[in-house]
Structures are given as structure tokens and as C-alpha cells.
Amino acid sequence: MLEINKVYNMDYIEGMKQIEDESIDLIVTDPPYNISGIANNIELHGKPVNIAEFGQWDHLFDPEPFIVEAKRVLKSNGQIYIFTSDRLMGKYMLLFEKYAFCFRNTLVWFKRNLRPKIRQYTWRSGTEYILYAGKQKTKKVTDYTFNWQGQELMKNLIITNIVGGKERVGHPTQKPLSIIERLIKVSSNKDDVVLDPFIGSGTTAVACIKLKRNFIGFELSKDYCDIANKRIAEAQAQGRLGD
């Protein structure tokens, strides 16, 4: 078992293969969306339209090796939340069925402060999706950790701003800390181990520190890994001051 409460600068597959079977309580992660580059050969005024370019890591991501390892490392009552795009949702649903996960919900993140669309050739995209599943398809739902937070907070529509201000730390797809905290609070308990194989700027680790959960994270980019470790050190220092 890898040392907990660390972010490792390595590829997610290399890292996950070093985790013991059935040792993780919860996975909360934001894998590549495969939305970078030219989309569907769209042209505007005779020139191809570049939708977005987040980096080479956001091209041709295959989610199956990730799902295979997730199935192995999760405890029998483990759960998983996956941020994804509409173009990968179908693949994940097929993989959940193939590997006998218990699909439970699709959560929708609605971005309240959506940026204006400069190239006005299609609908503005104001939502992202979070797929929620349990490891065991035949497991009773009451066996899963699910800390009900009240009718209002338990809607599958989560409305927040895009990350900005002091919270933004330089990662192009950084997710709001408030969303990650909500998922972890609902589907884990104190001292549980939360895994994020695509931890990016370290938001999942920061949420775990605040909520007194343990974490393991992997990040291939050294630059993002350095950002994550800086945020973790700051969160740990704040936690000590609050004790």
C-alpha cells in the first residue's frame, strides 16, 4: 500500500497498480474529457474552430483501464464519483455495466457565472456531469456510506460559480472546492481513504484535509503536482491552527 496523505508525481495507472486490492473507500476524480482540439471539423468564415486545448493529456483518453483498476482497489462497499463530458458519458455507462458497478445517479454541475461565447456558432455549454456509482452491482444501497445532508443539498443539480479569485491556482480544469467537499462529505466518513488518480491542482486532497479524511493522489505533471503540494501544505497548516 502506498503511503497515504500524499500526492505522487506519476501516471495514474502506474500509481493505481501499487494500491492494494479493496483498500479504498471512495474515489472522487476528474479524468480527461477528450474535448481538446478541433471539434467535428467545424469551420467559421472558412477557418477551423478550435474549441479548447487543455494539453496532450486531454486527447484520446481511454477510461477502461481506469475503471478496471477502480473496481480492484475499491472496498466491497466503495463508491466512485467521476467528472466527465457528455461525449464520454456513454462509454462510462457501458463500462459500469461491463464491470458490474451499481450506477446510482448522474449529478449535473451548473455554472452560474458562465463565460460569454466569443464564436457564436453553437449553444453555450453551462453544465458538466458527475457520474456516481457503487462498486457492487448487487450490494444493498443501505450498505453504502451515504450521509444525507437535507433535501435542498441533496438535489442532483449543483449550482456554483466557476473557480475564480484566490481559489484559482492555475489549472485549466480546476473544480470548485465546495463541490468536492460535498461529494466527500456525503459518501465517506472520518478517517476513510479517498483516492483521486487525476488530482490536478490538489482540490480533492484539500477537501480531505478539511473533512478529516485520508487521501492518495496521482498527477503526471510536475508543475501541477507542485501546485497541489503547496495547497496541501497550506491546508494542513490551517488545520493545525484550527485544532
Descriptive terms for the model:
single chain, alpha/beta, 10 strands
Describe this structure in words.
It is a single chain. With 243 residues, the chain is an alpha/beta fold. The chain is 28% helix and 27% strand. It is built from six helices and ten strands, in the order βαβββαβαβββαβαβα. It has helices at residues 12-16, 64-73, 86-98, 177-187, 203-211, 222-242, and strands at 6-8, 24-29, 37-44, 47-52, 74-84, 102-111, 127-134, 157-160, 193-196, 214-218. An eight-stranded mixed sheet has the order 1-10-9-2-5-7-6-8, sandwiched between helices. A two-stranded antiparallel ribbon has the order 3-4. Helix 5 (203-211) links the parallel strand 9 and strand 10. The longest helix is centred in the last third of the chain and has 21 residues, at 222-242. The radius of gyration is 18 Å and the shape is globular. The mean pLDDT is 87.
Biggest beta-sheet profile: 8 strands, mixed
Order of helices and strands: EHEEEHEHEEEHEHEH
Treating each run of at least 4 consecutive H or I residues as one helix, how many helices?
6
Tell the overall outline: globular
DSSP helix fraction? 25-40%
The oligomerization state is single chain
Q: Between the first and last Cα atoms, what is the distance in angstroms? A: 29 Å
Strand content: 25-35%
Total beta strand runs: 10
Using only C-alpha atoms, the radius of gyration works out to: 18 Å
Side by side, the strands of the main sheet go 1-10-9-2-5-7-6-8
Mean pLDDT level: 87
| Low-pLDDT residue intervals, each spanning 5 or more residues | none
- Helix-strand makeup class: alpha/beta
